[in-house]
Amino acid sequence: MSWPHRVVVTGCGVVSPAGLDTASYWSRMVAGDGAIGPPTLVPAELLAKEVVAEVKGFDPAAHFGQRELAALDRCSQFAVVAARQAIADSGINFDGDLSERTATIIGTGVGGSNTFDESYKRLYGDKRPRVYPLTVPKLMPSAPASQVTMYCGLRGPAFGIVSACSSATHAIGTAFQMVRSGIAAAAVAGGAESCLNLGTLKGWEALRVMATDTCRPFSRDRKGLVIGEGAGVVVLETLAGASARGAEILGEIAGFGMSADARDLTNPDVDGMTRAIAACLADAELAPEDVDFVNAHGTGTLANDITETAALKAAFGDHARALAISSTKSMVGHALGAAGALELIATLMAIRDNVAPPTANYLGPDPDCDLDYVPNQARPMQIDVALSNSFAFGGLNAVLAARRLA
Questions:
Q1: What is the pLDDT of residues 306-356, one digit of tens each?
Q2: What does DSSP say about strands 186-193 and 102-107: parallel, antiparallel, or unpaired?
Q3: Fold match flag (7-244 vs 254-403)
Q4: Tens digit of each residue's pLDDT (9 = 90 or more) over 252-270
Q5: What is the CA radius of gyration of the chain?
Q6: Which helix (DSSP H) or strand (DSSP E) does residue 102 occupy?
Q7: Which listed residue (170, 195, 280, 334) is catalytic?
Q8: Which one of 12, 152, 195, 297 is the catalytic residue?
Q9: Parallel/antiparallel/unpaired status of strands 385-392 and 379-380
Q10: What 3-state class would DSSP assign to 365?
């Protein structure tokens, strides 16, 4: 199908456990330098699973005034900082009417979880009669999107997307569709998450999918996922608009695919994953053989990794064995609603630098996970086309295709 516009990425912003900007984050991804370890935001002795992927060294006071912080959950802080980075990286100027023609779409899986946790502690633990006045504006899932519009001066279509672990990929994919169709001239899109608090982590423990040591996607002896946090934001523009202002183009978004399993809240489904991948390839007008690299959802749970491997085989056929497949969650954990944005940014950097980041902590093949997962060391290779997969609880699947601009 012929669309009015091609869509390119001209800026990226990152707040992650592996670095507080895109360059440091990507450098650690290539080095296989993981950021998983004991928590400091929650006393480790209160947790049964004592590993997380925290954003370390983030100083809110370096980015916001005291009065501003009163209205910003940590999740929204991450979103605003990553958005500012992405806009600065892009060099785009939103003065004039471009502000009104730029979409802002920020995904989150949980939203202002820290505000929830603090409020419940105040009410039930400390027996206080009331919570802070700005509790509701801080915890609402649309808060990151709203705060980005206000701090960055964006007056066009703006909303949050909540689809668990696919939230950021849905947000970027929706923004891509809006720019491609001409609904928006540009977009600031991505995801943010911060839920490393006692209440949320105990909830994840109850699901019995948490790792006890580290995250080992697709590996034998993997024990489960590691919860992370952070934010990733990209600036999307039309190719014509970016070229006209001489912007550096980091890559092209070529296609977007979605599906719903319609089966189970927590168990992944091969058919749903396969249909999302196939829909993305069809939208991008790509043959399976065109794809060089896949940044997998790759959570490190027994069920996800087996199911995703089967879906890649079903979608790519014989070409599945020629794919380089990585899970960057092995290094930064699972940032839930931010994961898809962090992974798309790593995918764009992989295309830019022609290097596939490793799947860290890999101990050897699982009989049911028998593809090429780029174990433990980055691989220099030609990468012209790549996919980024997100497969969420509730069977909500989203896949983005990126390529080198030709």
A1: 999 999 999 999 999 999 999 999 999 999 999 999 999 999 999 999 999
A2: parallel
A3: yes
A4: 999 999 999 999 999 999 9
A5: 20
A6: strand 102-107
A7: 334
A8: 297
A9: unpaired
A10: strand
The DSSP line for 193-231 is E---SHHHHHHHHHHT-B-SS---TTBTT---B-BB-EE
Q: Residue 356 has which token pair?
A: 């596939």
Alpha-carbon gap, residue 379 to 332, rounded angstroms: 19
From the list 304, 293, 282, the residue with the least C-alpha distance to 397 is 304
What's the CATH number for 254-403? 3.40.47.10
Please indicate whether residue 297 is annotated as part of the active site: yes
- Active-site position among 12, 75, 152, 165: 165
pTM equals 0.97
CATH of domain 7-244: 3.40.47.10
Q: What is the dihedral of CA 204, 208, 209, 215, to 10 degrees?
A: 90
Backbone φ, ψ for residue 253 (5° rounding) = -85, 120
Distance of CA 92 to the CA centre of its chain: 23
Residue 336: name the closest of 213, 193, 208 by CA.
193
How many degrees, rounded to 5, is the angle at CA 297 between CA 295 and CA 299? 125
Question: Domain extents for the chain?
Answer: 7-244, 254-403
Indicate if 334 belongs to the active site: yes
